[in-house]
UniProtKB/TrEMBL annotation:
PANTHER family: YCF35 (PTHR39638). The lineage of its organism: Bacteria, Bacillati, Cyanobacteriota, Cyanophyceae, Gloeobacterales. The gene is ycf35. This is Ycf35.
Amino acid sequence: MSHFSSIKTRLNDADALVAALRELGLQLVVHAEAQPLQGYYGGSEGQSAEIIIPAAGLGTQADIGFARQGDGTFQLIWDLYEAERRYLPNSSLSFTQLPERLPALYARHLAIAVAHRKGHTVTAVEARADGGYTLRIQPRTVQSTTDKRRR
C-alpha cells in the first residue's frame, strides 16, 4: 500500500537545501506557503510542503516535499513505496540514498554561503571518499587600525 512517510531532518536553510536538490538534478518548485502534495492516488493525504519535487519530473505517481516545521527545520515527506522502486532522474542515485547524500551537499552549500556572507573566499572544494567535502576558505583581510590612521 502506498502512503506518505516523513523523515525529520536538521536542514533549516531553504537556499542551501534548494541548491543541493538542484545539484542532484532535481526539478523543484519553491512556494512561500506550503502547498498540497500529490500522492500516489492523486490526493494529498493532508500533506503539504514549501519545497516540492513534482512527481511528473521524477517519473513517479507521488511528489516529494520538504515542509518547514515549527522549529525551523524541514521535514522530508515522500512515498516510501515509490522510493524503493526508483532512481533519481538522470542519476545512478536511488531515491532511498537521497536522505544519505543530501546532508553533505546541503552542508557544503550552507558553508559556502556563510563564508561569502562573512566576506571570506572559498578557494577550494574537495570531495572526500566518505561522501563529505573539505573546503578551503581564505578569511577576509582585516585592515589594522594602524594602517587606517596612516591614510
